[in-house]
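To illustrate the input format used throughout this study, we show a single complete record. The first block contains the structure-token representation of the backbone; no residue identities are included at this stage. The design step must infer an amino acid for every position from geometry alone.
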């Protein structure tokens, strides 16, 4: 993220400490919901700062969060977001790429570590490691599942029912199991890559992530 976003994040985190535990819980739900709206993180943090100050002022008067911003937190957030400039197509694409790359990097690190262990154990004869159809489809499934879960968590940030939590937890488990099964069952080799090249690729993707992250609010 850009320097100004980092500075505002730090300021907002410090400001949040003035809230009561209940106020922090309400603010957390609001921030989670804001992370899913199509506005830049800088604009989200500006909204977060204003809402935090509203809640702090309300608590000083002895007012609860619902007395300050109303019963419907989602409607309150939507009314604010409507007044904020939304991201354009290019910025949305960059943010999507930026948010997806960390998960991809983690998957690549896990794959490299697994192949290295197989080489050291003698399972693979050399550092030229096969990439299977299961590796690719399982990785795609995990990335899509993670992105979908984040979208649902932000969209339903104010849903507190146990049934809701259990439902999406079950979906996450099913996606994970399906990805693992696909990874191990589809053993058709698509191509091979040297483990060193895999490590270099991982570092290159990390560099791209840092570059995009430093330029996107």
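Output of the design step:
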């Amino acid at each position: 993220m850009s320097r100004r976003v980092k500075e505002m994040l730090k300021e907002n985190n410090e400001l949040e400490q003035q809230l009561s535990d209940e106020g922090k819980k309400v603010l957390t739900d609001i921030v989670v919901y804001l992370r899913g709206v199509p506005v830049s993180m800088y604009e989200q943090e500006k909204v977060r700062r204003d809402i935090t100050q509203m809640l702090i002022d309300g608590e000083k008067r002895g007012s609860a969060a619902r007395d300050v911003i109303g019963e419907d937190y989602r409607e309150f957030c939507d009314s604010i977001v409507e007044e904020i400039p939304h991201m354009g197509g290019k910025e949305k694409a960059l943010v999507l790429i930026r948010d997806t790359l960390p998960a991809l990097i983690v998957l690549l690190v896990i794959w490299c570590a697994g192949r290295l262990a197989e080489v050291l154990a003698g399972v693979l004869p050399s550092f030229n490691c096969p990439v299977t159809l299961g590796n690719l489809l399982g990785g795609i499934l995990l990335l899509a599942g993670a992105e979908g879960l984040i979208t649902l968590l932000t969209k339903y940030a104010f849903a507190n029912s146990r049934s809701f939590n259990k439902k999406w937890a079950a979906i996450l488990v099913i996606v994970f199991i399906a990805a693992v099964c696909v990874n191990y069952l589809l053993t058709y080799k698509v191509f091979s890559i040297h483990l060193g090249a895999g490590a270099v690729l991982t570092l290159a993707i990390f560099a791209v992530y840092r570059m995009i992250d430093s330029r996107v609010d």
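Structural context for interpreting the output: Residues 3-81 form a domain with the c-terminal domain of poly(a) binding protein fold (CATH 1.10.1900). The mean pLDDT is 89.
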